[in-house]
């Protein structure tokens, strides 16, 4: 996809018979190039922030997609769903234990250790109150998740549920603001 900087550079080069490198510092063309480059930087920053916010949802769906592919019965029952949720919540336990054991006694935890501790606690709290997952308990939605190719656009069409640690599943809305 061409950026606005490339388009502006091409337009200026066409106007100047192929030379873009001989511009005055405060000329209109250099200002246009600067404005286009700043716009591209701003869009890139917004895109990376959006991707960072969306990544936990994509990771969560990918985890349950793998669980669906490994299971024999395609729509999962509540016990299998809770087992997958437990595996997702405690996926960072090994790394957290390694960091905790590597630390000398009496020393404060590292930043990574603190982040993992907070992430695990947040996931456990969410699981207690209702863990948000795509609906893998219905046949048609399980098929949608199995066929999902990893794009954000298809996530909005999937039905979502919240599963609590007590085993209750209730319908939920798509997490448009992100998770965690």
TrEMBL record:
It comes from the Eukaryota. Residues 16-35 have a biased composition (Basic and acidic residues). GO terms for cellular component: nucleus. Pfam families: Tma16 (PF11176). Residues 1-35 are annotated as: Disordered. InterPro entries: Tma16 (IPR021346), Tma16_sf (IPR038356). Belongs to the TMA16 family. PANTHER family: TRANSLATION MACHINERY-ASSOCIATED PROTEIN 16 (PTHR13349:SF2). This is Translation machinery-associated protein 16. It comes from Drechmeria coniospora (Nematophagous fungus). The lineage of its organism: Eukaryota, Fungi, Dikarya, Ascomycota, Pezizomycotina.
């Amino acid at each position: 996809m061409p950026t606005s900087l490339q388009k502006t550079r091409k337009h200026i080069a066409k106007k100047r018979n192929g030379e873009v490198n001989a511009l005055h510092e405060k000329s209109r063309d250099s200002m246009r190039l600067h404005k286009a480059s700043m716009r591209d930087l701003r869009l890139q920053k917004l895109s990376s922030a959006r991707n960072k916010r969306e990544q936990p949802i994509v990771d969560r769906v990918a985890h349950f997609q793998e669980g669906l592919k490994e299971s024999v019965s395609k729509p999962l029952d509540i016990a299998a769903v809770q087992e997958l949720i437990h595996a997702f919540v405690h996926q960072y336990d090994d790394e957290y234990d390694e960091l905790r054991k590597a630390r000398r006694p009496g020393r404060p935890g590292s930043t990574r250790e603190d982040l993992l501790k907070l992430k695990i606690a947040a996931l456990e709290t969410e699981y207690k109150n209702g863990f948000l997952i795509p609906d893998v308990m219905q046949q048609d939605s399980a098929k949608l998740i199995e066929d999902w190719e990893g794009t954000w656009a298809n996530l909005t069409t999937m039905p979502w549920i919240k599963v609590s640690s007590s085993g209750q599943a209730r319908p939920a809305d798509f997490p448009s603001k992100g998770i965690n």
